[in-house]
């Protein structure tokens, strides 16, 4: 009973610690630490030194009164947002932020090729981004676009202390092209913005640094979307590239296919090749690096229709074992259902069947990614 009680106390202490460690809510993370009682503090009467000199007096801690402009722009006490200013995150090459005297948010997209139509690319990115966000277009002309309402919803924290943030905003976007045609400027002007934490409105004013922070967050979201789009297109292009396969030996000196690709890339592309060769996948384990395949001998017309060289193989199950070799290459070893290596002649026959297919039909689609 003593041991059980001790374990219960430890468990309770851990749960309390976890609960307390996650008590910082989203709105309080925006606020400065400590008490705000200084707002009720009254100035005392000046200290009198009598006949002594006041020459050594300091005014280092004299807090000046807020100007009319400062009162218009900012807040006091708990309403002050102490989060650091938003910075441009240039995840795409050639994107620069232009400092402006009037505080406007303007970024430049620079081309790296004379054949790039940067204005068309920027507009295409904006249209794709807004379409992905299900945002309507209110007004549009050759150089300007006014968006409808963008809605972003985020959830922070754990089940014990979860915050839901809802942001709604709209923008006016202007695209300017320089005379050389190699640089395009995007001017972002936020028209409306609201932010709620658990249905509670957060105080803000669309002026000064607050306004620019909101506009820069929009630009960062746009660039992040472009980066992910570019990355997915590159992955699709890589998937369309054929596997470069040759005959060789694995680390155990067994006859094998040697693929001039890394393990993960080879693993991802092999299922399409197996299907083409009339193999179906029964089981697979990436951690152990093997496929269990079932082969069904197709009719004679199948080989000709798919430009394959026919090979003879019993209708049975086969193991394909992958191995990582030095230099970023991958070995593919063919085994029978008892995990015994297939004869070298049979491994060669299957290889000769797919060689022309890999180099001919499963070719790269020349799908290019967007560059800025």
Please describe the structure with a list of short key phrases separated by commas or semicolons:
372 residues, alpha+beta, Alpha-D-Glucose-1,6-Bisphosphate, Chain A, domain 4, TATA-Binding Protein, 2 domains, six-stranded antiparallel β-sheet, 14 strands, elongated, disordered C terminus
Describe this structure in words.
The protein is α+β, with helices and mostly antiparallel strands and 372 residues long. The model is unreliable at 1-5 and 359-371 (pLDDT under 50). 31% of the residues lie in helices and 26% in strands. Strands 1, 2, 3, 4, 5, 6, 7 and 8 form an eight-stranded antiparallel beta sheet that branches. The protein has eight helices and 14 strands. It has helices at residues 2-21, 26-29, 68-73, 118-132, 208-239, 263-276, 300-305, 344-360, and strands at 95-98, 105-110, 137-140, 144-147, 150-157, 162-177, 183-197, 200-201, 245-249, 255-259, 279-285, 290-295, 317-324, 330-335. The protein folds into two domains: 83-237, Alpha-D-Glucose-1,6-Bisphosphate, Chain A, domain 4 (2-Layer Sandwich), CATH 3.30.530; 245-360, 2-Layer Sandwich (TATA-Binding Protein), CATH 3.30.310.170. Strand 11 and strand 12 (290-295) form a beta hairpin.
């Amino acid at each position: 009973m003593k041991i059980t009680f001790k374990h219960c106390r430890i468990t309770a202490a851990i749960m309390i610690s976890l609960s307390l460690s996650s008590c910082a809510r989203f709105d309080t993370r925006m606020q400065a630490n400590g008490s705000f009682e200084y707002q009720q503090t009254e100035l005392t009467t000046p200290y009198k030194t009598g006949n002594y000199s006041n020459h050594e007096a300091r005014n280092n801690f004299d807090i000046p009164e807020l100007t009319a402009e400062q009162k218009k722009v900012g807040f006091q006490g708990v309403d002050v947002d102490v989060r650091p200013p938003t910075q441009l995150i240039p995840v795409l090459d050639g994107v620069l932020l232009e400092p402006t005297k009037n505080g406007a948010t303007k970024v430049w997209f620079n081309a790296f090729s004379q054949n790039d139509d940067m204005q068309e690319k920027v507009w295409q990115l904006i249209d794709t981004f807004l379409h992905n966000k299900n945002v309507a277009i209110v007004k549009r002309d050759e150089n300007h676009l006014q968006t409808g309402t963008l809605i972003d919803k985020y959830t922070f924290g754990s089940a014990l202390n979860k915050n839901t943030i809802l942001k709604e905003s709209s923008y006016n976007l202007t695209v300017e092209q320089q005379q050389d045609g190699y640089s395009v400027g995007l001017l972002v002007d936020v028209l409306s913005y609201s932010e709620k934490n658990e249905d509670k409105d957060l105080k803000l004013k669309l002026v000064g640094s607050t306004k620019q922070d909101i506009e820069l967050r929009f630009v960062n979201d746009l660039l992040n979307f472009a980066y992910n789009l570019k990355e997915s297109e590159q992955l699709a292009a890589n998937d369309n590239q054929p596997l470069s396969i040759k005959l060789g030996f694995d680390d155990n000196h067994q006859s094998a296919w040697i693929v001039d690709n890394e393990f993960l890339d080879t693993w991802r592309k092999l299922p399409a090749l197996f299907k083409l060769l009339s193999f179906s996948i029964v089981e697979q384990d990436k951690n152990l690096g093997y496929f269990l395949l079932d082969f069904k001998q197709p009719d004679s017309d199948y080989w000709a229709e798919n430009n394959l060289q026919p090979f003879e193989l019993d209708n049975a199950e086969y193991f394909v074992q992958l191995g990582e070799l030095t230099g970023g290459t991958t070995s593919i070893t063919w085994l029978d259902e008892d995990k015994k290596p297939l004869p070298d002649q049979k491994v060669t026959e299957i290889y000769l069947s797919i060689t022309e297919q890999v180099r001919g039909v499963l070719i790269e689609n020349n799908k290019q990614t967007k560059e800025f």
